Amino acid sequence: MVSPPPTAVGHPASADQLPPEALALATRLFDAARNGQIDILEQALRGGLKPNMTNGKGDSLIMLASYHGHVPLVHLLIRHGADPNTLNDRGQSPLAGAVFKNEEEIIKALLEGGADPTIGEPSALEATKIFRQERFEGMFKEQIEKLGDSGGMTPMGTVRVMVFESVRMREY
């Protein structure tokens, strides 16, 4: 099997071109994000770690920290330039994941960091309806206004919410 050529700046084009030590370090860093090990990531960020690093599924450090409820780590990552709007390979945002997990403090931290409730599939705004977390809608609408977004749900998001509502109605 022929490996793809390195990228234009001389970096490997894929993870399989990285040395085993680099892969082991990346694994430790993603585990640290999942486990809320702020000391490990703080040291790595001060040492030059790119805050928007993603794993093989496209999950960023802030996605993993958010999904697992690590508020101080989310704040740290944002302070170091992590983008709270980075979507993973499935089109999911950290904010929508926080809605799914009902992580109010994470939601607040992401919004303070500039998270956009209208991006992703489903968007965080759509997720409030899908997962019956409507209490977050007010915060999201304020953020949409602050960001100057046209706001609201995408047409596909509206269809998705209607389907979920239809299924819920049949459950009763």
Overview features:
single chain; 172 residues; mainly alpha; Serine Threonine Protein Phosphatase 5, Tetratricopeptide repeat; 9 helices; elongated
Radius of gyration: 18 Å
What class would the helix/strand composition place it in? mainly alpha
Cα distance, first to last residue?
55 Å
How many independent structural domains?
1
Strand content: under 5%
What's the CATH topology label?
Answer: Serine Threonine Protein Phosphatase 5, Tetratricopeptide repeat
Please describe the biggest sheet, giving its number of strands, its sense, and whether it closes into a barrel: none
Q: Overall mean pLDDT score?
A: 85
Number of E-state strands: 0
Structural topology:
Blueprint: H1 20-35, H2 38-46, H3 61-67, H4 71-79, H5 94-100, H6 104-112, H7 124-130, H8 137-147, H9 155-171
Concise account of the structure shown:
By secondary structure, the chain is an all-alpha fold. Helix content is 53%, strand content 0%.
Notes on the protein architecture:
One of its GO terms (biological process) is protein K6-linked ubiquitination. The structure is a single chain. This protein has helices at residues 20-35, 38-46, 61-67, 71-79, 94-100, 104-112, 124-130, 137-147, 155-171. The chain is an all-alpha fold and 172 residues long. The protein has one domain: Serine Threonine Protein Phosphatase 5, Tetratricopeptide repeat, CATH 1.25.40. The N and C termini lie far apart (55 Å). The radius of gyration is 18 Å and the shape is elongated.
